Amino acid sequence: MPGRRAVLAGLVALAMATPATAAAKVVDARKVFPFLDTYLKIPSADRSRFRLVYAFRSGGKPLAAQVWLIDGATRTPIPLRPDGRAERLPTLAQLGRAKVEVGVEAGVKISVGMTVEPVTPPATDIDARELALAIAQASVGVRKATGIMAVAMPKLQAVVFHGVTSGDVEFADGRRAALPSVGGVVTFNPTVTPGARTLRFPRVPARMEIG
C-alpha cells in the first residue's frame, strides 16, 4: 500500500530524467510538471473531483528555496507550502513554452514528486460518497493522463489520510466501524466498506491522497 499512496512517484522519477539541477537551474516546465498538460486537456467535468499535486524536495526534505515560472519576459513566483507542494501550477499554454527556475546552487539535487488528491477538503466529517466518486473519476482520468504508461500503474482504489491515527466510517443505516489502518495510515476503500455515508476523524487530516 505505501507504493499506492504515491502511485505516480516512480513514473515522475522517470519523467524527471532531466531534473531541475542543470547548471543554469532552469528547466522546461513540462519536464518539471509531467502529465500536467495531458491532465489539463481532460474536459473539466471529467476532472472536477481530483487534482494532481506536485511537491518539490531536496536532500530528502521539502525544498526551502524560491521557485519561479519564466514565461518570456514574465517572471511569476511559484509559492511552495511547508511540505514542498506547489501552490500555483502552469497553465496549459505556459507548459508549452515556459521554464522553471529554482533558487539553489547548481550542484543541489532537486526532485519533484506527484500525487493525486481529491478536491474534497480535509475535515473531521467527510462525505464518503464524494470520496468514492473522486476515486472513480481519478482512476479513469489519471489513466488518460498517463497514456501508455497506465499499464504499469496499480488501480486507484482508496483514499489515505495523513496526520490522523484513527477514524470511523458511518453507514447509511447508522452503523459505525473503525476505518482500517494500512502501514500505519488510515485508509478508506469504498469497495471494502460499501454503503459508507460519512467518515469521521478525531481531528482534521493533514492531507488526503488517492492511491
- CA gyration radius, whole angstroms: 18 Å
The residue ranges in which pLDDT falls below 50 over 5 or more consecutive positions are: 1-24
How many strands? Answer: 15
Oligomer: single chain
Distance between the termini: 8 Å
Helix-strand topology string = HHEHHEEEEHEEEHEEEEEEE
Helix content: 10-25%
Work out the count of structural domains. 2
Query: Percent of residues in beta strands?
Result: 25-35%
pLDDT average, as an integer?
Answer: 84
The global form is elongated
What spatial order of strands do you see in the largest sheet? Answer: 1-6-4-5
Outline the biggest β-sheet.
Answer: 4 strands, antiparallel
| Count of alpha/pi helices | 6
Q: How does the helix and strand content classify structurally?
A: alpha+beta
Could you describe the 3D structure shown?
- The chain is of the alpha+beta class and 211 residues long.
- Helices cover 21% and strands 30% of the residues.
- The chain has six helices and 15 strands.
- The chain has helices at residues 2-5, 9-15, 29-32, 36-41, 92-95, 128-146, and strands spanning 26-28, 50-58, 61-62, 67-71, 74-77, 99-102, 111-118, 125-127, 159-162, 168-171, 176-178, 181-182, 185-188, 196-200, 207-210.
- A hairpin with a 2-residue loop joins strand 12 and strand 13.
- It is elongated, with a radius of gyration of 18 Å.
- The relative contact order is 0.20.
- Mean pLDDT is 84; it is low at 1-24.
